[in-house]
Design a protein that fits this description.
Helix content is 20%, strand content 2%. It contains three helices and two strands, in the order ααββα. A two-stranded antiparallel sheet has the order 1-2. The longest helix has 25 residues. Bound molecules: heme C (HEC) (4 copies). The site of one heme C has 20 residues, from α2 and α3.
Length: 194
């Protein structure tokens, strides 16, 4: 009996350990909405994903549950190197802007219209001209860009998007949901050869 109990305790501990990383990462992060007043479901994933009947608008994220932004954005202009971003944010960045545009309600998920837009420093807004360019092509070896990019950033169809620098689920456990620490500008130097 004693032995069986010990074995059970070990199994329970192993299970807790094995299932911890995925949830531990987003839980407690800036994207853990479980105790927000606008999220009466109390669930972490639900504002963004649902197991059945996802947002019929469709998107590039699996089982997406949030209303997509319908705003018109002002993009970053032509860069010093002469590169111009796409005319509108790509689908990947639109996922983020579906809350961070400051207009689309946070609680606009599961088909509800919602009533609470994002506020404070997390409000990136519809003017992206004053933010690091997104939906912009990256050419390794071109002016200012490394020949071989660091392995912590993610490039989407040859473009830099919000999620190139940020990890929506906080998997890396770095402040501001960054893909890697920006201490000594390490994140910037994943792409730039300064
Ligand atoms: C703030 C919105 C948001 C929340 C909250 C969120 N996700 Fe995601 N999730 C996304 C986005 C956006 C993508 C697409 C990422 C990409 O393609 O780079 C994604 C992708 C995924 C994927 C497929 C790709 C991968 O990264 O494995 C899984 C599985 C997933 N999410 C599960 C979850 C679970 C489980 C939860 C809750 C514990 C959760 N997500 C919470 C936005 C969210
Ligand atoms: C469902 C709405 C929603 C979506 C979708 C969403 N966010 Fe957020 N995000 C928020 C809210 C709400 C906060 C927290 C604001 C606060 O705490 O004041 C936040 C916080 C953040 C922060 C700051 C975290 C911190 O620790 O300070 C970053 C960075 C961020 N989001 C990036 C993204 C990126 C990149 C995407 C897309 C890949 C994304 N978000 C998609 C709602 C969302
Ligand atoms: C080139 C990398 C990069 C890209 C692309 C990028 N960010 Fe960030 N973002 C950062 C860094 C670095 C910080 C942390 C800045 C700081 O702490 O001073 C940050 C901070 C933030 C914050 C937190 C602001 C605050 O003061 O709490 C939010 C929200 C955010 N980003 C959302 C986005 C969204 C949405 C996009 C796409 C439209 C995006 N980011 C694209 C690098 C990036
Ligand atoms: C994922 C790759 C990536 C990361 C990480 C990244 N950048 Fe960039 N950055 C780019 C690309 C691509 C361009 C556009 C290059 C071009 O003009 O062809 C750019 C352009 C710039 C420009 C020039 C804009 C102009 O108008 O000419 C500055 C300044 C800049 N980045 C600063 C930063 C800083 C600061 C960081 C860290 C917080 C950072 N970048 C992180 C990819 C990145």
């Amino acid at each position: 009996m004693r032995k069986a109990l010990t074995r059970l305790a070990v199994v329970a501990a192993l299970l807790a350990f094995a299932s911890a990383p995925a949830l531990a990462a987003i839980a407690g992060s800036g994207h853990d909405f479980s105790s927000e007043t606008w999220n009466s479901s109390g669930e972490i994933c639900k504002p963004c994903h649902v197991p059945h009947n996802p947002n019929p608008g469709g998107s590039t994220a699996p089982l997406w549950n949030h209303t997509l932004t319908s705003q018109t954005f002002t993009m970053y202009g032509t860069t010093v190197a002469g590169t111009t971003p796409d005319a509108t944010p790509n689908a990947k960045s639109k996922l983020c802007l579906s809350c961070h545009d400051g207009v689309t309600n946070l609680d606009a998920f599961g088909g509800a219209a919602g009533s609470t837009p994002i506020s404070g420093a997390a409000n990136i807004g519809i003017t992206l001209a004053d933010d690091h360019p997104v939906s912009i092509a990256i050419t390794p070896g071109s002016k200012g860009i490394k020949g071989t990019l660091g392995s912590n950033v993610v490039i989407y169809s040859n473009k830099v998007e919000c999620a190139s620098c940020h990890d929506i689920h906080n998997s890396a456990g770095v402040a501001k949901l960054l893909r890697t620490s920006n201490a000594a500008s390490a994140l910037c130097l994943e792409c730039h050869n300064k």
